Amino acid sequence: MVKERSLADQAIYKAARRSTVQSAHLEERDIPSGFHRTLKSDRYLHSRIGNEDGLDEHAPNSSPAQDPVVLAGMNPGYGSTPLPFDELDALLSQARASLGEPVMRADVYDLEQELEADNAERLLIRIDAGDLLLDDVLVDFFLRGLHKDLYCSVWAWAGATRQHEVSIGIDPWLITPELRASLDNMLWRYRNTDDWTARELGIAVHADCVRIHPFTDGNGRSTRLFADLVYLAAQMDVQGVGGPVETPGSGEFYLYDWNVDKREYIRLLREYDLNRDPTALARYVGVVGI
Questions:
Q1: Which of 80, 75, 79 lies closest to 64, judged by CA?
Q2: Quick check: pTM over 0.90?
């Protein structure tokens, strides 16, 4: 008897299939010994933006161009670029040993994609099973734990709150209280008003985390996955006043489709910074059924 795929398994599978078709001619890059490329890890979040928001300082840039390398989040020539010395200092010794010398940016990116896919699958399954509720997900310590899980095998800064000022983000000493207050307020607002749908809630969470910029690096990747998890948990939340924009009537749920134009995405993030209204960004970022 063939076991039926769970909701989360379908989400991973469909996202991987969709992006694999889009990147059919993607150049193959060697995977370091000990790390094995799979369908889901290769393409799970090709529809997620690699670094188009400029939030992951070490990650590759992307553009809306149709070059297969760019579609994968890689600028042409990026894969042949060694990791600079300042970033090598933060790379964990076991990751560096596995990646080999010289450590190439593309190999680090592949490894991060693998870890993200594994963590996404694990957490989506737990939300689907009811093991993680919106109250469990939409809290600051969950985000910190998510960031740590995504990067603890690769980077020394995994899960660590940013301690230095950067061009985007609030002052470091404000990060902890601001992040906690922001997420608490959003949960209360979703539960007690009809201001936001589940789709708008997840986008508001992502945009506000971008505004705060809580981590040294990896803010883009972690907060987009965080938004997906919040979105799914909110759709299943029986206490919320708001609900998903889409009402298929078939029990279908949704995740975000992050395959968007970089410039417009950044413009709408900046617009959110000014008015704290996620409506336009939520309308712009598409969704896919799972």
A1: 75
A2: no
